[in-house]
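Ops channel
N.P.: pipeline sanity check, posting one input/output pair.
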């Protein structure tokens, strides 16, 4: 244990050399410290003394991360010895004894720590419409990240999912601004607002406008006007800043021809001057170099370094060499970048280290974390998975199934923990079946076998994610079964390896469903997709469809419990499920986007609507009770909605309040979510759901880029109930 230190950041900065300051602004990958070739690393834990000395004695590096290359799954003990060795070297390397800030992608739980708790990916967490549960999941991720000795998490992703082709769709909280904002607040509070030893710094990703590449391919150009940036893509970041988010990672792509890493208007004028963000801005992977190598706005890496730092970057995820460090030292020494400018970044970085308690101790021993990987934490992951699963279709109440019957299980995600978890699971891309499995976690097939007994569950994979394997075998086995469950899926992927050329579900998977539907047996589809793959041609072949998103390690159990009625489904789609590859329209579209070929307004025909999700019970909505129907400045309206469970099962319902701003100076959306609340009702039980609304709830960004609420009529909508109010 190190001696407690209470540092004065300004004094510290005065004592630091230019080299030390630039070192603080440098973040390297663990591969640069370990034995062997970076991308062939088998044992990242084997730190190399010479490489450690280069990093800390020579370059005085301030931050380390690790990603894909060989990192695998590391035990708590190993994490502690890795972090200890790094910290020891760093503290011994300079008179100022500055600890290293280790950062990691604990995206849906502790990605890289053996035995940790893995939750549904963010898209599934959004589908719970349960912010309290999402907060709890994030508290656990923070606890387990700290237990691994790591105080900084590159999470959450706050980009809005408005381009379904995009490979990182599953990493978001969906397409809607309001839903994503509520989830954002929960995530930031869950990660940060805990006791020192249980909290991590959150990282808002990826500022700004990353999720709408025109081509759908990762890190390709986005064309987004300033008004749309502020209307759709900025609010989650504003919420995160208001919730105290400590760090931000920058968008790797370019908007309107300017790479964001070189965009002063976004990184300084907007982020610092307007939004008053005081935390650390880190680049994404190699993104300063990419200003030269990919985006080609800088004619050398040196120029790229100058551009990015002057635009507002604090720390460079370099991460595989020290060119950045050398260029920045040179730029400061030659007066091309002032020392005051780098002091600003160094102060933010040191302040963060101080707030994370790293100057007091760099040791966070595993004995302080008895709940790591516990059954208690797994229960929360199970609840999150169970509450996310969304019942999209249930013809003639096919579900829940009877456990007295025989079932055939098929499909790529039927017997794969990889396909339940997706990327950022043990490794960057999460393709590790057998290599890094957690022994006591069950696939869908295994969970069904546990529930029904092995002899009642037949299995034939039928197809992989993209090609046929043994479809005929599946057809043969179907004759012995009462029900068929086909678990569709997508190969785990993210970023550039996740790029696809069409949203259409692979032919092999469609063929499996089509062939099995011909048997006439009740057919249930379970979807485990990274994004909404088009299933239009097979929707009618299925009697029931559930969307499980990427439900994590407890997904197998949760899916079983939904299928067999132990859990009543309550998830709701956090995005519009398209019915055709080129019909990618969000729920909050404009009236003109509803125009049909016959000139009616029936052109918006998604497969399933945003907010859709069935239950095994039924709910009845009564008329609104409203305190008044005009709304002026500093006033509010109290709205109450009576909801009753009219079925025979206990169930959870998400009461969703939308509005239509009838006429406005910017073409209004046909509807926008303004409030929601998840409630639970026993059979026959009735509750009044109350919402308080103010003028700001109906605001939007106008032509002059100001947030305004214009006078006029607003129609409030909840299910089939409507109520007009007037904004004064
Ligand atoms: C991703 C980030 C991630 C970083 C570090 C990048 O390639 O875009 O989301 O945090 O790598 O792993």
């Amino acid at each position: 244990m190190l001696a407690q230190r209470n540092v004065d950041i300004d004094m510290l900065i005065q004592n630091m050399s230019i080299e030390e300051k630039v070192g603080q602004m440098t973040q390297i990958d663990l591969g640069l410290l370990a034995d062997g070739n970076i991308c062939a690393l088998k044992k990242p834990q084997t730190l190399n003394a010479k490489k450690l000395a280069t990093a800390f004695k020579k370059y005085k590096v301030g931050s380390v991360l690790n990603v894909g290359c060989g990192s695998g799954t590391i035990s708590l003990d190993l994490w502690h010895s890795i972090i200890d060795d790094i910290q020891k070297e760093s503290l011994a390397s300079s008179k100022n004894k500055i600890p290293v800030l280790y950062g990691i992608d604990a995206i849906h739980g502790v990605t890289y720590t053996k035995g940790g708790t893995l939750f549904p990916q963010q898209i599934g967490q959004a589908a719970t419409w349960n912010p309290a549960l999402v907060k709890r999941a994030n508290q656990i991720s923070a606890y387990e990240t700290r237990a691994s000795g790591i105080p900084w998490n590159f999470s959450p992703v706050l980009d809005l999912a408005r381009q379904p082709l995009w490979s990182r769709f599953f990493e978001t909280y969906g397409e809607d601004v309001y839903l994503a904002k509520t989830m954002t607040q929960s995530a930031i509070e869950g990660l940060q607002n805990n006791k020192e030893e249980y909290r991590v710094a959150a990282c808002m990703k990826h500022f700004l406008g990353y999720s709408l590449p025109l081509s759908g391919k990762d890190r390709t150009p986005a064309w987004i006007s300033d008004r749309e940036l502020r209307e759709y893509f900025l609010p989650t970041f504003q919420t995160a800043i208001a919730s105290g988010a400590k760090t931000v990672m920058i968008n790797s792509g370019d908007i309107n021809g300017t790479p964001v890493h070189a965009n002063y208007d976004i990184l300084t004028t907007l982020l610092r001057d307007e939004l008053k963000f005081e935390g650390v801005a880190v680049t994404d992977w190699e993104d300063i170099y990419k200003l030269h190598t990919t985006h080609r706005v800088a004619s050398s890496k040196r120029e790229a370094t100058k551009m990015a730092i002057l635009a507002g970057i604090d720390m460079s995820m370099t991460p595989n060499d020290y060119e950045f460090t050398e260029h920045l030292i040179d730029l400061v020494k030659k007066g091309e970048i002032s020392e005051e400018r780098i002091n600003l970044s160094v102060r933010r970085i040191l302040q963060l280290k101080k707030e994370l308690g790293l100057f007091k101790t760099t040791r966070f021993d595993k004995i302080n974390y008895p709940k790591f990987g516990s059954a208690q934490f797994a229960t929360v992951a199970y609840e999150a998975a169970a509450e996310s699963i969304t019942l999209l279709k249930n013809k003639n109440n096919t579900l829940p199934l009877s456990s007295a019957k025989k079932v055939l299980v098929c499909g790529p995600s039927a017997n794969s923990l990889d396909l339940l978890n997706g990327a950022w699971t043990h490794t960057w891309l999460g393709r590790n079946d057998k290599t890094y499995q957690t022994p006591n976690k069950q696939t869908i097939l295994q969970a069904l076998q546990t529930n029904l007994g092995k002899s009642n569950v037949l299995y034939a994979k039928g197809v992989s994610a993209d090609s046929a394997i043994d479809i005929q075998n599946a057809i043969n086995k179907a004759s012995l079964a009462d029900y068929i469950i086909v678990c569709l899926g997508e190969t785990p992927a993210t970023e550039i390896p996740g790029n696809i050329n069409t949203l259409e579900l692979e032919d092999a998977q469609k063929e499996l469903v089509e062939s099995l539907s011909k048997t006439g047996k009740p057919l249930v589809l379970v979807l485990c997709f990274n994004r909404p793959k088009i299933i239009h041609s097979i929707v009618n072949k299925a009697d029931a469809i559930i969307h499980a998103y990427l439900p994590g390690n407890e997904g197998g159990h949760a899916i079983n419990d939904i299928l067999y009625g132990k859990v009543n489904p309550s998830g709701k789609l956090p995005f519009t499920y398209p019915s055709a590859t080129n019909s990618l329209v969000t729920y909050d579209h404009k009236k003109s986007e509803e125009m049909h070929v016959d000139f009616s307004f029936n052109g918006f025909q998604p497969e399933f609507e945003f907010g859709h999700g069935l239950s095994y019970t039924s709910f009845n909505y009564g008329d609104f009770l409203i305190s008044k129907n005009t709304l002026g400045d500093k006033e509010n309206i109290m709205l109450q909605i009576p909801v009753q469970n009219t079925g025979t099962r206990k169930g959870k319902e998400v009461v969703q309040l939308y509005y239509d701003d009838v006429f406005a100076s910017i073409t209004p959306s046909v509807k926008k979510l303004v409030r929601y609340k998840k409630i639970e009702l026993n059979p026959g039980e009735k509750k009044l759901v109350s919402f308080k609304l103010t003028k700001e709830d109906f605001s939007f960004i106008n032509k002059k880029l100001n947030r305004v609420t214009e006078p006029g009529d607003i129609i409030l909508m909840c299910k089939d109930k409507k109520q007009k109010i007037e904004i004064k």
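N.P.: looks fine end to end. Residues 65, 67, 105, 154, 205, 249, 284-285, 495 surround beta-D-glucopyranose (CB under 6 Å).
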